[in-house]
Write a structure and sequence with these properties.
The chain has about 240 residues and is α+β, with helices and mostly antiparallel strands. About 50% of the residues lie in helices and about 10% in strands. The chain contains 10 helices and 5 strands; from the N terminus they run H-H-E-E-H-H-E-H-H-H-H-H-E-E-H. The termini are far apart.
Length: about 240
């Protein structure tokens, strides 16, 4: 071959591979964002890193807030009825997202309660089944002894929900003893017809609103779905306080 002949073009194998990889890295975030609006946590699903605010199916929030404020003797409520902000929480004792939110965000919310700026209304919707219903009855019984948060923390110890086998009447009674409740009174209240009716009513409130995913929140009527970061709730509370 002459020394001045044109050099032969060699197509290196890694060039098309590199092009495909770069294209995939650009397209992937777009696909993730496009599907984000439908990915709010649901019962039994995997936590998402950036939950989004969505709407409940039938958000009659104003009626919920008014009814909640009218219940001065609601054992599952904490905070003054005339607080500038009301947070209604729809939860489930087998929901891992609810447990995580209770560990990470609830303590900050309770600081607002202590300052008189927030009223929390807790509602168990029991979307995970009979063990959740039993746990809701137990938590209500604990609330009748003004120990709702202590018992709630015991059921969500370490930011994790208990298994169904750890939500039997016997296990729940043992938990009541652990947090120092009057066990005899707790057992009577947990098995009372009035407690069953209250638990059913609270669950119906959530399902009537279309709150089938847990946790779901109504903050002064604004719906939030999923265990969102604490800052989301802090910002919403501060904004609501400023608008009152």
């Amino acid at each position: 071959m002459a020394k001045h002949a044109a050099p032969r073009v060699h197509i290196r194998w890694w060039i098309p591979v590199l092009v495909i990889a770069v294209a995939a890295s650009l397209i992937a975030p777009i696909l993730v964002n496009d599907t984000g609006e439908d990915s709010a946590p649901t019962a039994g699903s995997t936590p998402e890193p950036n939950p989004v605010v969505t709407e409940v199916e039938d958000p009659e929030q104003a009626d919920v807030d008014k009814d909640a404020a009218a219940k001065d003797d609601d054992p599952l409520a904490d905070g003054p009825t005339d607080a500038p902000v009301t947070l209604v929480v729809f939860s489930d004792y087998q929901c891992p997202f609810c447990a995580a939110w209770s560990k990470d965000t609830l303590p900050t919310m309770l600081e607002y309660v202590d300052d008189g700026d927030l009223r929390i209304e807790w509602r168990e919707v029991n979307v995970f089944g009979s063990a959740s219903v039993q746990a809701a009855k137990a938590a209500y019984a604990a609330a009748l002894q003004d120990r709702h948060w202590e018992y709630h923390a015991e059921l969500f110890a370490g930011g994790e929900p208990r298994s169904p086998g750890e939500l039997t009447p016997e296990a729940l009674t043992e938990a009541a003893d652990t947090v120092g409740l009057d066990v005899d009174r707790f057992t009577d209240d947990m098995n009372a017809k009035s407690t069953a009716e209250a638990v059913e009513e609270n669950a119906a409130m959530g399902t009537d609103l279309g709150a089938f995913s847990t946790p779901t929140f109504l903050l002064n009527g604004q719906p939030y779905v999923g265990a969102q970061p604490t800052d989301v709730f802090v910002d919403a509370i501060e904004e609501a306080k400023g608008s009152n």
